[in-house]
Fold:
Amino acid sequence: MRKISLLLVSFLFLACVQNSSTDNKVEEVQGEWIKGDADEKLEIIEEHFQGFGKAMWEVSYRYKELYVAGMDENWEYAEHHVEEMEEAIELGLQRRPKHAKASEHFLQVAIPEIEKAIEAKNRDLFEEKFEELRQSCNACHMMRDHEFIKIKTPKDYYSVVGEEK
Ligand code: HEC
Structure:
């Protein structure tokens, strides 16, 4: 009887070991071009997401669209761009947290202020707050050693969005 139970215990033990070893097995997945070991693959993905410059690409597009939206008094479209711009900066900060301190004024003052003008549907106030936003862009560029990127008011910019004339 003792022999049998010993046999049973060792059998159960073996079954467990085998089971856990298949559970821990990591399935290696290779993409079309994302290849290599886990670290190499992560590195490739991170590189393709890029850093803060990628966020700025999006932010500068939205900055121009926001201006035209305000000038056209297309307030819903303006609000859309403010929200997306804020998110683009926040995602950029996840990738490059070193810019967080310098973007505080932009996120905590410039964005909420322009939102107030949009909410009020007030074109004059919008122009005033847009100018403050522009200065906030440039202040950050100065703080982050990119003062050569001088943002101006996009006066001659035409959006593809709007009423057909
Ligand atoms: C964190 C503070 C910060 C704020 C706020 C900020 N920027 Fe930038 N911006 C940067 C930094 C840093 C770079 C350089 C990024 C890089 O290439 O690594 C940059 C780069 C740029 C570039 C060049 C992007 C390219 O093609 O490489 C543009 C255009 C730009 N910003 C526009 C804006 C506009 C418009 C605003 C405001 C609506 C703004 N930025 C607000 C920090 C900021």
